[in-house]
Amino acid sequence: MPLDPSDLTALANLLAPMATPQMLAPLLNGAPSPVGLFGNVVATQMWLQALDDAHLRFLLEQMRYNPIVAVALARMTVAPSASTDGPWPWVLDIFPAVDRHEFWRHLKRLLEPKDKRILIVQGGRQVGKTYTGEYMLAELQRRATGVPIRTVHQRVDGAGSVENVVHGVLGKLGISWDGAPSLDVQQSTDVAAKKEWWIKETARWFADKLHLDRDRQVWLALDGHAKNDAHPELNMLFAELIVQVARRIFDPNGCRLFLIDYPEAIVRSALPQVTLREDITLPTETDVIEFLEGMFGQSPATEARAHEIWARIIQEQEIDRMPMLARELGEVRP
What we know:
Rossmann fold, 10% strand, 3 domains
């Protein structure tokens, strides 16, 4: 499937700072190497749009271990085994999914037309929380063969304002900001417009936009609000968005909302009848053994290989263990 504008913009931002003809030539499989792109995001995006599918795919394949590129490739490609049933040992054909049993159980319920709608993902640093929104949802999008699913992963740490969060999500969906509620009493239908009113109205309007296409599901991951310290305006936005998503429980294609790394006060406000929770921890040696047995089968050799990998992993600081584990498993993959 073709890339949407938000994917092309992300790729252009990645490539423009290094887009010299000398750098691009080996990546283009014989296509003419462009000039004048270096440092120019707009020109780089226009060039990417003009590439035919074969050359664009070849270019991206050369950089497939970059997370932005991996997600773009996933959007262009139907999964070899197009099934939403988990577990998926490898996400986007690159990243290992170790010890996510709880996620697979929750995913089945979120896929049901009239079951849970919100997943709260909590855990320590570098245990895989962002991995859920950035990679696992992108994998889900390419596996969905029934109702089309459009996934959006939006970082909200450092967002700074309600407008930045909403603009960011709608931009990735290609939806206009026109008609948004306004605090300007000259533009507002409520002459007594106040900040609290405006935030709630914006959340309602935003939820409506997420449901514009009745034949498509939006799976939205809002990631990192716990890093925003005290931010009452964003707190109000997310609390009201939870309410709006919950109200659409009887709409089979209602939005599925992932709140990743959120303050417990927001978590407690989520309605239990529509909400699931996953608390992620670092994998254990048993998890590594189980993962390798899924690839190689049960045998003393498999267990010995897992022990060797684990012995190297536990020598690292906890914050470095997940990235190292991903590299180690990638190196032994058949």
